[in-house]
Amino acid sequence: MNSLEGVVVQIQGLSSSAGDISRLHVILKQAEESLRSESTRLSPILNQLDPSNHSLGYLYILEACTSAPVSKEQAAMLVPYIARFISYCAPEQIRLAPEKFIAVCKRFKDQVMLLGTPMRGVAPLQAAVRKLQNSSEHLTTLHPEFLLLCLLAKCYKTGLSILEEDIFEVDQPRDLFLYCYYGGMICIGQKHFRKALELLHNVVTAPMSSINAIAVEAYKKYILVSLIHNGQFSTSLPKYTSSAAQRNLKNHCQPYIELANSYSTGKIAELEQYVRTNGEKFESDNNLGLVKQAVSSMYKRNIQRLTQTYLTLSLQDIANTVQLNSPKEAEMHVLQMIQDGEIFATINQKDGMVRFLEDPEQYKSCEMIERIDSSIQRIMSLSRKLTTMEEQMSCDPQYLAKAGRERQRFDFDDFDTVPQKFNI
Amino acid sequence: MASSSTSSSGLTFKLHPLVIVNISDHYTRVKSQMQQPSSNSNSNSSSNSNSNSNDSVYGCVIGVQRGRTVEIFNSFELLYDESTHSLDRTFLEKKQELYKKVFPHFYILGWYSTGTDAHESDMLIHKALMDINESPVYVLLNPSINHAQKDLPVTIYESEMHVIDGNPQLIFVRSSYTIETVEAERISVDHVAHLKPSDGGSAATQLAAHLTGIHSAIKMLNSRIRVLHHYLLAMQKGDIPCENALLRQVSSLLRRLPAIESEKFQDDFLMEYNDTLLITYLAMFTNCSSTMNELVDKFNTAYDRHSRRGGRTAF
């Protein structure tokens, strides 16, 4: 008990300046074992400390508190403490012990899920993510946890705000996979299919030394979203995909690839037949809803194909070509597509004719100038980042070793003294 | 001492750009061929010494004089003889003969030199030439680069007999001149001014050169308008007395502007602006894509465990 009191006094005393805090950090690291052994008696201690001034000390004690498995009642008691801590803690102090902070937040998430109220964890975790990040381009381990809570709590909009940022720095590869996968699911929930496609594409093409389950699941969703958004799907993956993915992904997603093939024929009846026969497979992957959306997007594709052939068409003809039941349904579909901006057309209700128009954008307006200008700025900063990355890669010893080796094998005609291997 | 009064002879001088280019080229060549820097390197100070510094170059200008108009077409270099403080006479006459054969109408109109100001010693050379041409001209090029100066650093001097302290003396007086160009000269000056790269055929360099030209023109227009604006503001505040003639000119200039406010102009202008922006965007895109491609290739070489052993196939 004495050591505990001593630790508390230290925390209260040494939390003012940066130099003191590093000393405190050392002391706390040494006291870790003793703290953990007394985990049951730590809760009242927390009341003596202030989360915003004594963040580091509070963090250590909290981490020791939660290290043991907790029951539901204990969880109910701890959750408000942790939530309060996260909202009040000082970012500079907790960045000194990021693993502890991450551990605390993860346990917080587990407790919140144990209590069955994921909504309570959304706001604190969002604050936690912001405090842990070094910059808005930094992906921490807390990002996927936060997105998972958003998914479970069904508050997709909060998740979207985090997804808006571009990521350039990643702590752990697993974080990236989970982040993009959950992010893709959130975007699907919000019907932002373009962004979902982008995120799922990242999972599928991320560097991986061997195939992992997240990538397989993501690939299944990727196929479906690609059908919904683009109306087509190509099985060839870009060349920056890892070879592990290129070889193995397709084998695990066979029913989806066949679905895509049947989609490309354009016949709705066949597609629906296929979905019916393989329903359980899609159901077991929790993808049945998405599959149904893909089927209904088939109508949109067919109508879009019509715009390329015809200038005007009657609603009845549209209904017949697209295999809809009535001109009324065709009118609903066309109206929806015009509102979403997917086609440009006018419906003449008197004689039931639809006239397809060209894209009215003349690129003559000032708003277009601003759009292009902002795109140019973005791409310039991206170009700078890419150049630095490429330079770093050129200096990478692994790359130099392999490049040197390959070169020696085939250069018969220059006899300069290139070493066999770069021993760096 | 060279006077800064203007000439009263009533002659109009027309100078061709070829002469200016020749003089500057002569000076540049001589300067760059000198192995050591000259011992008296601060030669820009107007010294009264008779020996001209090593930095000046000399030559003759030739052209046509019709009535009151003197048109200077061409020039050639001459050697300055330090010992006699005069130009090499034999060489000059030989060159004159040769030029006469090709250009029968051209006469020796005078001579040129480089420096900041006309000196006393120049008068000796000037007098020596007076037997070829009774009133020679002296073209002086100032080779020092002054970024603030907007006009050409070329001055034309004539000699006049003035009575100073009871003695009639020949002194240099400044004359005004205009630049006269033939079509061929205009094209070549344009070329030199834009310093087009040697393979100026590709579209990218042409576009870049075109846009650079427009950019510098607009920059100059902007700075001039700013000067006018400052001036008008000062006039409004009362710092400077109102000058009605200037105000009338400014208002007539402004009244010409609304002619470009029409809607059709806006449309065309915005469309062209957008086109240029799109070209920039596309160029950046291509740049990024190629960098990305390189990066991916390098990454695949470095980290992919089962990278292709392909490379170049055996011949």
Automatic annotation (TrEMBL), chain A:
The keyword Ribonucleoprotein does not apply. Residues 192-361 form the PCI domain. It comes from the Eukaryota. Its main location: cytoplasm. GO terms for cellular component: COP9 signalosome; cytoplasm. Transmembrane segments: none annotated. This is COP9 signalosome complex subunit 3. PANTHER family: 26S PROTEASOME NON-ATPASE REGULATORY SUBUNIT 3/COP9 SIGNALOSOME COMPLEX SUBUNIT 3, COP9 SIGNALOSOME COMPLEX SUBUNIT 3. Gene3D superfamilies: 1.25.40.570. Coiled coil: none annotated. Keywords: Cytoplasm, Nucleus, Signalosome. GO terms for biological process: ubiquitin-dependent protein catabolic process.
From TrEMBL, chain B:
Residues 13-163 form the MPN domain. It holds the Pfam family JAB. Residues 38-53 have a biased composition (Low complexity). The keyword Cytoplasm applies. Its main location: cytoplasm. It is found in: Cytoplasm; Nucleus. Keywords: Cytoplasm, Nucleus, Signalosome. GO terms for molecular function: metallopeptidase activity. GO terms for biological process: COP9 signalosome assembly; protein deneddylation. The keyword Nucleus applies. Belongs to the peptidase M67A family. CSN6 subfamily. Component of the COP9 signalosome complex (CSN), a complex involved in various cellular and developmental processes such as photomorphogenesis and auxin and jasmonate responses. The CSN complex is an essential regulator of the ubiquitin (Ubl) conjugation pathway by mediating the deneddylation of the cullin subunits of SCF-type E3 ligase complexes, leading to decrease the Ubl ligase activity of SCF. It is involved in repression of photomorphogenesis in darkness by regulating the activity of COP1-containing Ubl ligase complexes. This is COP9 signalosome complex subunit 6.
